[in-house]
Amino acid sequence: MNDSVLATPTAVLDARASLGECPVWSRDEQVLYWIDINAPALHRFDPRSGENATMPLSESIGCFALRARGGFVLALRSGIWLADAHGHPTRKVADAPYDPHHHRFNDGRCDPRGRLIVGTMNENRDRGSAALYRVDTDCSVRELFSGMTISNGLGFSPDGLTMYHADTPAQVVRAFDYDAGTGTPTNGRVFMQWSGEKERPDGAAVDSVGNYWVALYGAGKVVKLSPRGRLIAEHPLAAMCPTMCAFGGPDLCTLYITTARQKRDAGELALLPQSGGIFAMRVDVPGLPEPRFAG
Questions:
Q1: Could you tell me the CATH number of the domain that includes residue 269?
Q2: Were both Cys, which of 9, 51, 62, 222 would link to 105 (CB 3.0–4.6 Å)?
């Protein structure tokens, strides 16, 4: 098993986000969109100018996707919303399929056909009551499976035939056969299991040759796994809680990483003051263009 350290991500935006998440690269604009879940907002970071524009929201946001028709689709605590190009929610298209007093949407992304696949989390963390859902292009919502506490780590192989999904507290990533025609995952099997106390798989991204990059929340690193689940490399960064990865840049060879500073003690934040920022590093294999929501 090759666990060599190949590169170190560096901070490109000292955002001090409480819970930075869901980086999404816009090829049209050449900017990175991302969110802060706890201080609800959609952000737009331009790496050329270094400017970051904030679009506040009135409720928690778990994830979002760019929309093929323009604007965004947002997974807010109250349900699925469509938003305009400025991030303003304009129309609620589906109610939340859970009790919003203790559950919310979490990690999600579009599949290759433009459906939004989005999971939930149980904020009480007292039982496996979270689930994974599919938001079809007609904005109807279907449960795919349940039984986890925090749904995370969604990704798709380059051919679209494998879906990856993490259950963060269980420290496991599973791979599923994915039927692109119906948007249905089947035949789940363990892709990677961690045992270290701080190795909790969070958000992920898949590159153009099928390697799975996943942020290990609490372990201060992003790891690269082969399509067979072999550890290829570890990339530590100056924040203990990386949350998700995304490929960007004109050639999709820049890996952006969001991080969090929530619930970290003062001593750690003094040593790692850029926690909550966005980090980036160059990679030698490009990522995949992020699909847009087709609804």
A1: 2.120.10.30
A2: 62
| DSSP at 1 | -
> DSSP letter string over 105-156?
EEEEEE-TTSPEEEEEEETT-SSS-EEEEEE-TT--EEEEEEEESBEEEEEE
The tens digit of pLDDT for each residue in 6-35 reads 578 999 999 999 999 999 999 999 999 999
Helix or strand or coil: residue 271? helix
Q: Is 290 exposed, middle or buried (0-12, 13-18, 19+ CB in 10 A)?
A: buried
Q: Can 202 be counted among the known catalytic residues?
A: yes
pTM reported for the whole predicted model: 0.96
Q: Supply the pLDDT for residue 76.
A: 98
The predicted-structure confidence for 233-248, as pLDDT tens digits, reads as follows 999 999 999 999 999 9
154 alpha-carbon distance from chain centroid? 7
Domain presence at residue 127: yes
Separation of alpha carbons 242 and 19, rounded Å: 10
Considering the domain boundaries, does residue 294 fall inside one?
Answer: no
